[in-house]
TrEMBL record:
Mg(2+) binds at residue 258. The keyword Amino-acid biosynthesis does not apply. It catalyses: tRNA(Phe) + L-phenylalanine + ATP = L-phenylalanyl-tRNA(Phe) + AMP + diphosphate + H(+). Its cofactor is Mg(2+). Signal peptide: none annotated. This is Phenylalanine--tRNA ligase alpha subunit. Binds 2 magnesium ions per tetramer. Tetramer of two alpha and two beta subunits. Its main location: cytoplasm. Belongs to the class-II aminoacyl-tRNA synthetase family. Phe-tRNA synthetase alpha subunit type 1 subfamily. InterPro entries: aa-tRNA-synth_II, aa-tRNA-synth_II/BPL/LPL, Phe-tRNA-synth_IIc_asu, Phe-tRNA_ligase_II_N, Phe_tRNA_ligase_alpha1_bac, Phenylalanyl-tRNA_Synthase, tRNA-bd_arm.
Length: 352
């Protein structure tokens, strides 16, 4: 049996409609019209019941062929439409890569970061490792392991922000030396610097901030002497403030070092004659240091009859203030872009 007239007309019309569908939505409508439950192809099936039984299978087969032809045509139209749409999209969304871009505002490296990196570079060159620590610290590492037991009056030197009785914001980077020694478990040498933020209960003014930065240094090995400390700090002073700088050690007190010294550098502004930077003394105090107290070594598991060490702690805030002539420590933390942008000029000149 050949296709009925009705079938071939329906198929032809369907192919025309499919190819006239201008987009996917219209094509969908055509699909529903012909292939949907109430569509024309289903309509053809309804004639089946009027046919003699022997013709039914063939009729059904032909309706299926019509359905298949329509489905195939819809699929290929669908592909074509999708391709056209993509091409159109690519054509309209073309970008001109030769157009000049919008200028990005480029900042400058924060003066504290510059200072910390400068100090890190020096010590990395001397074979030190950089070690990180916790800003929220246990009382044990911040004080006790550093020879500052609970009732020790020297705790008053560092007014602290306590979170609980046993946990506080670290008041210095020294807990990193205690932790590192403990971790190394009596092994030498230890040669580290630890830069980081520290916190003290202080009222903020031009030279005090409740948050500031420190860099701690620690060396532990056999035969480490005070002269090693002095040589290291001399190198540091010259590298930060110029080759002509000299250092002066003044006796001082820290619970974790013995002997302890305060270190001054000869004034880089007046070369020692006396000026406002050095408060007319010719010397500027830059850091605290000393030989690691035997109690600190022992607490961390080092045999203090075999090993000695030195430690020093400096404030990059103070060093940056001196280096760049910054009068107020608060500038570092308020992030006024006018302040920060001034360091672009330093960068452009390729200076440290
Ligand atoms: N931790 C001391 C302070 O913050 C500085 C210091 C470090 C002194 C190491 C001596 C040795 O005041």
């Amino acid at each position: 049996m050949v296709q009925t007239e009705e079938m071939s007309q329906l198929q032809q019309q369907a192919l025309i409609d499919i190819n006239e569908a201008a987009n996917e939505k219209e094509l969908q409508d055509v699909k529903v019209k012909y292939l949907g439950k109430k569509g024309s192809v289903s309509g053809l099936m309804k004639h089946m019941k009027d046919l003699p039984n022997e013709e039914k299978p063939q009729y059904g087969q032909q309706v299926n062929e019509v359905r298949q032809a329509i489905e195939t045509e819809i699929e290929s139209r669908q592909e074509l439409l999708a391709k056209e749409q993509l091409e159109q999209q690519l054509a309209t969304e073309k970008i001109d890569v030769t157009l000049p871009s919008r200028k990005m505002a480029i900042g400058a490296k924060h003066p504290l970061t510059r200072t910390i990196e400068e100090i890190e570079d020096l010590f990395l060159g001397l074979g030190y490792e950089i070690v990180d620590g916790y800003e929220v610290e246990q009382d044990y590492y911040n004080f006790e392991a550093l020879n500052l037991p609970k009732s020790h009056p020297a705790r008053d030197m560092q007014d602290s922000f306590y979170i609980t009785e046993e946990i506080l914001m670290r008041t210095h980077t020294s807990p990193v030396q205690a932790r590192t020694m403990e971790k190394r478990n009596g092994k030498a040498p230890v040669k580290i610097i630890c830069p980081g933020k520290v916190y003290r209960r202080d009222s903020d003014d031009a030279t005090h901030s409740h948050q500031f930065t420190q860099i701690e240094g620690l060396v532990v090995d056999e035969n480490i002497k005070m002269s090693d400390l002095k040589g290291t700090l001399e190198l540091l002073a010259k590298s930060l403030f110029g080759d002509e700088r000299e250092i002066r050690l003044r006796p001082s007190y820290f619970p974790f070092t013995e002997p302890s010294v305060e270190v001054d550098i000869s004034c880089f502004k007046c070369k020692g004659k006396g000026c406002n930077v050095c408060k007319h003394t010719g010397w500027i105090e830059i850091l605290g240091s000393g030989m690691v107290h035997p109690n600190v070594l022992e607490k961390a598991g080092y045999d203090s009859t075999k090993y000695t060490g030195f430690a020093f702690g400096m404030g990059p805030d103070r060093i940056a203030m001196l280096k760049y002539g910054i009068e107020d420590i608060r500038h570092f933390y308020t992030n006024d872009v006018r302040f920060l942008n001034q360091f672009k000029a330093v960068e452009d000149r390729g200076e440290q």
